[in-house]
Design goal:
By secondary structure, the chain is mostly helical. Helices cover about 70% and strands about 5% of the residues. It has a two-stranded antiparallel sheet with strand order 1-4. A two-stranded antiparallel ribbon has the order 2-3. A hairpin with a 2-residue loop joins strand 2 and strand 3. The radius of gyration is 18 Å and the shape is globular. The C terminus is likely disordered.
Length: about 220
Protein backbone atom coordinates (compact mmCIF):
# COMPACT_ATOMS: atom_id res chain seq x y z
CA UNK A 1 0.00 0.00 0.00
CA UNK A 2 1.27 3.49 -0.84
CA UNK A 3 1.11 6.50 1.41
CA UNK A 4 1.28 10.24 0.74
CA UNK A 5 4.64 11.68 1.80
CA UNK A 6 3.14 14.39 4.00
CA UNK A 7 4.43 12.69 7.16
CA UNK A 8 7.99 11.85 6.03
CA UNK A 9 11.02 12.97 8.03
CA UNK A 10 12.61 14.42 4.89
CA UNK A 11 9.64 16.75 4.50
CA UNK A 12 9.92 17.59 8.20
CA UNK A 13 13.52 18.70 7.66
CA UNK A 14 12.65 21.22 4.93
CA UNK A 15 9.61 22.56 6.76
CA UNK A 16 11.55 22.89 10.02
CA UNK A 17 14.42 24.70 8.29
CA UNK A 18 11.84 27.09 6.86
CA UNK A 19 10.19 27.47 10.27
CA UNK A 20 13.42 28.42 12.02
CA UNK A 21 14.30 30.75 9.15
CA UNK A 22 10.96 32.57 9.38
CA UNK A 23 11.27 33.22 13.11
CA UNK A 24 14.79 34.61 12.73
CA UNK A 25 13.71 36.68 9.74
CA UNK A 26 10.72 38.27 11.47
CA UNK A 27 12.80 39.11 14.55
CA UNK A 28 15.90 40.41 12.76
CA UNK A 29 14.30 42.03 9.74
CA UNK A 30 10.75 42.91 10.74
CA UNK A 31 10.93 44.86 13.97
CA UNK A 32 11.70 42.13 16.52
CA UNK A 33 8.34 40.41 16.21
CA UNK A 34 8.14 36.62 16.31
CA UNK A 35 6.38 34.98 13.37
CA UNK A 36 6.19 31.60 15.10
CA UNK A 37 6.73 32.05 18.82
CA UNK A 38 3.41 33.66 19.68
CA UNK A 39 4.08 33.26 23.41
CA UNK A 40 6.83 35.85 23.02
CA UNK A 41 4.41 38.16 21.24
CA UNK A 42 1.89 37.81 24.06
CA UNK A 43 4.56 38.73 26.61
CA UNK A 44 5.62 41.77 24.59
CA UNK A 45 1.98 42.75 24.03
CA UNK A 46 1.30 42.74 27.77
CA UNK A 47 4.55 44.56 28.50
CA UNK A 48 3.77 47.39 26.09
CA UNK A 49 0.22 47.77 27.37
CA UNK A 50 1.46 47.86 30.95
CA UNK A 51 4.11 50.46 30.18
CA UNK A 52 1.75 52.74 28.29
CA UNK A 53 2.68 51.98 24.70
CA UNK A 54 -0.60 50.89 23.07
CA UNK A 55 0.65 51.76 19.59
CA UNK A 56 3.61 49.47 19.99
CA UNK A 57 1.33 46.79 21.42
CA UNK A 58 -0.46 46.63 18.06
CA UNK A 59 2.77 45.33 16.51
CA UNK A 60 2.22 42.18 18.58
CA UNK A 61 -1.57 42.03 18.72
CA UNK A 62 -2.08 41.92 14.96
CA UNK A 63 0.26 38.95 14.37
CA UNK A 64 -1.53 37.12 17.19
CA UNK A 65 -4.89 37.64 15.53
CA UNK A 66 -3.41 36.61 12.18
CA UNK A 67 -2.13 33.40 13.77
CA UNK A 68 -5.62 32.52 15.00
CA UNK A 69 -7.09 33.18 11.56
CA UNK A 70 -4.36 31.11 9.91
CA UNK A 71 -5.20 28.10 12.05
CA UNK A 72 -8.89 28.58 11.26
CA UNK A 73 -8.30 28.72 7.51
CA UNK A 74 -6.00 25.68 7.49
CA UNK A 75 -8.58 23.69 9.42
CA UNK A 76 -11.29 24.81 7.02
CA UNK A 77 -9.19 23.61 4.06
CA UNK A 78 -8.67 20.25 5.76
CA UNK A 79 -12.36 19.75 6.43
CA UNK A 80 -13.42 20.69 2.92
CA UNK A 81 -10.68 19.11 0.81
CA UNK A 82 -9.29 16.16 2.75
CA UNK A 83 -10.97 13.69 0.38
CA UNK A 84 -9.73 15.34 -2.82
CA UNK A 85 -7.37 12.95 -4.61
CA UNK A 86 -5.83 15.09 -7.35
CA UNK A 87 -3.71 17.10 -4.91
CA UNK A 88 -3.32 16.54 -1.18
CA UNK A 89 -5.03 19.17 0.97
CA UNK A 90 -1.73 19.76 2.78
CA UNK A 91 -0.13 20.73 -0.51
CA UNK A 92 -2.90 23.27 -1.06
CA UNK A 93 -2.12 24.84 2.31
CA UNK A 94 1.61 24.78 1.61
CA UNK A 95 1.11 26.58 -1.69
CA UNK A 96 -0.79 29.26 0.20
CA UNK A 97 2.11 29.63 2.64
CA UNK A 98 4.61 29.92 -0.19
CA UNK A 99 2.55 32.66 -1.83
CA UNK A 100 2.35 34.62 1.43
CA UNK A 101 6.11 34.43 1.99
CA UNK A 102 6.77 35.44 -1.61
CA UNK A 103 4.59 38.54 -1.22
CA UNK A 104 6.21 39.42 2.11
CA UNK A 105 9.62 39.65 0.48
CA UNK A 106 8.46 42.66 -1.54
CA UNK A 107 7.37 44.65 1.53
CA UNK A 108 9.77 47.48 2.54
CA UNK A 109 10.59 48.27 6.16
CA UNK A 110 7.72 50.75 6.26
CA UNK A 111 5.37 47.77 5.86
CA UNK A 112 6.69 45.61 8.70
CA UNK A 113 3.28 45.36 10.36
CA UNK A 114 1.53 43.79 7.35
CA UNK A 115 4.64 41.70 6.73
CA UNK A 116 4.43 40.23 10.22
CA UNK A 117 0.71 39.64 9.80
CA UNK A 118 1.36 37.56 6.67
CA UNK A 119 4.24 35.70 8.32
CA UNK A 120 2.18 34.79 11.38
CA UNK A 121 -0.74 33.76 9.21
CA UNK A 122 1.52 31.48 7.15
CA UNK A 123 3.13 30.02 10.26
CA UNK A 124 -0.25 29.20 11.75
CA UNK A 125 -1.26 27.36 8.60
CA UNK A 126 1.87 25.24 8.84
CA UNK A 127 1.40 24.58 12.57
CA UNK A 128 -2.11 23.27 12.04
CA UNK A 129 -1.37 21.33 8.87
CA UNK A 130 1.85 19.46 9.62
CA UNK A 131 1.54 18.02 13.10
CA UNK A 132 2.74 14.44 12.81
CA UNK A 133 5.66 12.71 11.12
CA UNK A 134 5.93 8.94 11.05
CA UNK A 135 3.46 8.65 13.88
CA UNK A 136 5.16 11.21 16.15
CA UNK A 137 3.47 14.50 16.97
CA UNK A 138 6.01 17.12 15.99
CA UNK A 139 6.06 20.88 15.42
CA UNK A 140 8.06 22.41 12.56
CA UNK A 141 7.72 26.06 13.59
CA UNK A 142 8.51 26.03 17.31
CA UNK A 143 10.50 23.93 19.75
CA UNK A 144 8.90 23.86 23.21
CA UNK A 145 6.62 20.89 22.50
CA UNK A 146 9.44 19.01 20.80
CA UNK A 147 11.75 19.69 23.76
CA UNK A 148 9.16 18.38 26.20
CA UNK A 149 8.56 15.24 24.15
CA UNK A 150 12.29 14.59 23.67
CA UNK A 151 13.07 14.85 27.38
CA UNK A 152 10.03 12.77 28.38
CA UNK A 153 10.93 9.98 25.96
CA UNK A 154 14.56 10.05 27.06
CA UNK A 155 13.47 9.65 30.67
CA UNK A 156 11.27 6.73 29.62
CA UNK A 157 14.23 5.12 27.87
CA UNK A 158 16.45 5.47 30.94
CA UNK A 159 13.76 3.82 33.05
CA UNK A 160 12.84 0.99 30.68
CA UNK A 161 15.80 0.68 28.28
CA UNK A 162 13.30 0.44 25.45
CA UNK A 163 15.31 1.31 22.30
CA UNK A 164 12.18 2.61 20.56
CA UNK A 165 11.85 5.36 23.15
CA UNK A 166 15.47 6.38 22.58
CA UNK A 167 14.92 6.41 18.80
CA UNK A 168 11.87 8.63 19.15
CA UNK A 169 13.67 10.95 21.55
CA UNK A 170 16.58 11.34 19.13
CA UNK A 171 14.13 12.19 16.34
CA UNK A 172 12.83 15.09 18.39
CA UNK A 173 16.31 16.32 19.25
CA UNK A 174 17.20 16.12 15.57
CA UNK A 175 14.21 18.30 14.63
CA UNK A 176 15.22 20.82 17.31
CA UNK A 177 18.74 20.95 15.87
CA UNK A 178 17.36 21.45 12.36
CA UNK A 179 15.20 24.33 13.62
CA UNK A 180 18.29 25.93 15.18
CA UNK A 181 20.17 25.62 11.89
CA UNK A 182 17.29 27.25 10.04
CA UNK A 183 17.18 30.08 12.59
CA UNK A 184 20.94 30.63 12.36
CA UNK A 185 20.89 30.78 8.58
CA UNK A 186 17.81 32.98 8.68
CA UNK A 187 19.45 35.43 11.06
CA UNK A 188 22.61 35.77 8.98
CA UNK A 189 20.88 36.07 5.62
CA UNK A 190 18.20 38.43 6.92
CA UNK A 191 20.90 40.83 8.05
CA UNK A 192 22.82 40.52 4.79
CA UNK A 193 20.02 40.37 2.22
CA UNK A 194 17.21 42.15 4.02
CA UNK A 195 13.55 41.84 3.11
CA UNK A 196 13.92 39.40 0.15
CA UNK A 197 15.66 36.85 2.40
CA UNK A 198 12.28 35.32 3.21
CA UNK A 199 12.19 33.94 -0.33
CA UNK A 200 14.74 31.36 0.81
CA UNK A 201 12.20 30.02 3.32
CA UNK A 202 9.63 29.97 0.52
CA UNK A 203 12.08 27.95 -1.60
CA UNK A 204 12.51 25.42 1.20
CA UNK A 205 8.74 25.07 1.40
CA UNK A 206 8.51 24.71 -2.37
CA UNK A 207 10.93 21.79 -2.20
CA UNK A 208 8.65 20.31 0.46
CA UNK A 209 5.66 20.81 -1.83
CA UNK A 210 7.26 18.74 -4.60
CA UNK A 211 8.46 16.11 -2.13
CA UNK A 212 4.84 15.50 -1.24
CA UNK A 213 4.18 14.16 -4.72
CA UNK A 214 6.39 11.22 -3.81
CA UNK A 215 4.80 8.18 -2.25
CA UNK A 216 6.35 5.87 0.29
CA UNK A 217 5.30 2.46 1.60
CA UNK A 218 2.77 2.56 4.40
CA UNK A 219 4.69 1.56 7.56
CA UNK A 220 1.69 -0.50 8.68
CA UNK A 221 1.92 -2.68 5.57
CA UNK A 222 4.60 -5.25 4.64
CA UNK A 223 7.52 -3.75 2.70
Amino acid sequence: MKKQMSDSWLLAVFLTLAGGFQDAYSYNCRGQVFANAQTGNIVLLGQNLATGHPGRALHYLLPLLAFVLGVYLAELVRRRFQHVTRIHWRQTVLLGEIALLAVTGFFPQTMNVPANILLSFACAMQVNTFRKFRGLSCATTMCIGNMRAAASLLCGYHQTRDPELRRQSLHYYFVIAVFAVGAAVGAVLSQRIGEPAIWIAALLQLIGFFLMFAHTPDPDEPA
